[in-house]
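Q: What does the assembled structure look like for these inputs?
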Amino acid sequence: MQTFVTDVLCIGAGLAGERVAIAAAEAGFDATCLSIVPARRSHSAAAQGGMQAALGNCSMGEGDSPDVHFVDTVKGSDWGCDQEVARLFCDNAPIAMRQMAHWGVPWNRVVPGKRHYYKGGERFEKEEKAEKAGLITARAFGGTAKWRTCYTSDGTGHTVLYTMDNRAAQLGVTVHDKVEVVSIIHDAGQCLGAVARCLRTGELRVYLAKATLVASGGFGRIYRESTNAVINDGGAHAAVLDTGVVPLGNMEAVQFHPTGIVPTYILVTEGCRGDGGTLLDVNGERFMHLYEPEKAELASRDVVSRWMMHHIREGKGVKSPYGEHLWLDIRHLGERHIRVKLREVDEICHNFLGIDPVESLIPVKPVQHYSMGGIRTNKDGKAYGLEGLFAAGEAACWDMHGFNRLGGNSLAETVVAGMLVGAKLVEYLRGREAVWNTAAVRDAVLRVEDRIERLRTGTDGGENVYAVRDAMQDALQDGVHIFRNADGLGRAVDSLREIHARAKRLGLRSNGVGANPELAMALKLPGMVRLALCVAHGALMRTESRGSHAREDHPERNDRDWLNRTLATWPGESDELPTLTYEPATRVMEMPPGDRGYGNGTIIPMDAGENNS
Amino acid sequence: MTRNLTFSIFRYNPMDRTSTPHMDTFVVPETSSMTLFIALTRIREEQDPSLQFDFCCRAGICGACGMLVNGRPNLACKTKTKELPDVVTLLPLPIFRLVGDLSVDTGTWFREMYSRVGSWIHTDREFDPLAEEERMDNALANEIYELERCIECGCCIAGCATARMRRDFLGAAGLNRVARFMLDPRDQRTEKDFFEIIGDDEGIFGCMGLLGCEDVCPKGLPLQDQLGFLRRRMGLAAIRSFLPGGK
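A:
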């Protein structure tokens, strides 16, 4: 057994994990990042759109400021966010973008002169000022008052991640790739590090650290259909939940995107509909205008997703070997428009579907996209419940997104939170000496070794790993999706409890030797089912609709009773359900709840009397 | 549409003493829009759960799934089965260390490459959080982005005859990385500094010009153009250093 000792252990080597590691390394501390894949393959690389920061350089961003960004973010969250955190984020985003420029990101820059742009199919003109030439420019994104999204063509995540990893290499940050965390080592309220499995050899390793950061991204793969990379399975979340003392925040807040292509669920951009693309059903007929006469296909993401699923439920879906879907039609936009303005969509259709969108319909359906919930931290990035444990990025519920995240805010969060949490983590390290209770470390390793042995020998049973995973994914897909109600959620919780019992009786079909992928899945699956139960049970208990959490039986946003955050813990190994508690959504209310200005739900106000519902 | 596809797949688990290198055959019914990502996942989940292969983004962005598909390096996620014959042979990428079956260790290779070429902006300027960002021409930013699009899948290395013969060859991915930093005005390294890194057989003079790298690059990067560009720049730098007053 190899043991590695470091000052800070970052679980995850995407943008958030590496940014924190860089902060530690700059302050002279040892930093080690663990990653399931080489750092540059982290899912951060897949983000194409960009990062929101109120630089206000481009003409359509004039007059932008962190204050305007703050208002957009809080509204976007449906007032579910921590407003102190949203404020910290918006104030620091411009600094973080400039720092990334200093480190080498080739941001697109302001080019002076007149240019055309399209909005709602109409052509407008704008003029970029000569005195702004060469500064970082921005593009438009949904839900924002100004053009604020900094970008590098269609590869923002890629360029920022490569630049970040370059900086990490320069500072001597250690990255152990093909290593997966199995459990968090903790003792007497203190986090000591992690037990991990090498995905090259299958051997277990111990990592001991003064501070441990979880920055492992989202957990979308607990759903059957997700835009997430296959590594985003929540393994690290499960390890944190299994400590029994660290809560996960707002796990029911799951974002769905209307146009994932079937069967691989790669996204095609909202720009298709923005430019005039339409959604068609099995009969080749449009339907969005029936439900949303004014906005039709251009209603907000959550609204379009809801009506698409409704329409499929009405029997208007297209049957396929991969389940029912609908069609996205962009043929009428014409070849020139598709090949030039929607180049990325054109390429995705050719590369992954083998179809030409100029002539063919694109099979699409709404799929899981982003996890607003995660490891609950305070505004410094410190996880609740364990000293020395931190979290950042999508893995964390730092909570600037509340119940609905705005496009461009998540990629920016990774870098901004990494910068701010990194500084707080360095403060923490400066005041710490390392003390490790070796008995606690040994116990943690023995528990994992015992689990592996039981899985290999089938001691606990012979449940098929992939069958149990499929059952979990189906339960969420069917009952905890875009539309939610007490019946469906109740059924999902019940079946997930049964699936959880099955997940404790897994047995391998292969020998489990070496970098065995079946063993990797078997080790994290019971924890994944517990995550699924946090999502489902939290959603069942939250009897209101807020952001992405849409309850058909409780359609109103209820600020009187639900202006709070769900905290889910799993204190006992034999527990069948998470323990839920609640805390106020925000301690500081800079902006009181109001209308979002889009969507058209009703609101039960904060100060409504008890009998006023 | 209802073809049965036969996959002949390289198998070897170096951590299993009973394992010996061999080929295994799996038959999978083809479905519409099927990719190798879908086919291999099905084989693992329905037929042999020990099968090792790497996918991550499965969208042609991260570069995890490079492998030899009927002998040619390619990304498995964007390889559609309908473009393949009834029998498909899958082998791991050569040159990189084998992890098992179709999985290879590209991470170690590329990490070593970064440290050899100093894959970061070399500057003595400090970042000032209160200052406006340094300006850059947008056309130049786009040029840098074009060279930064490499996803480190390893296909160019696997398709390179020189890399096959000498393990110390930087390869197209490494040389492309150097070209990216040479283009960037934020990097204060001189031509002489770059010549130190690539001015030998491990670098620009190792290439035999067989164009394998560019032929197989799944992102369509202009790898040979970059090599030519580096050779010209480095050649001129070398000549200048022999001239009186040259440095």
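The two ends of chain A are 60 Å apart (CA to CA).
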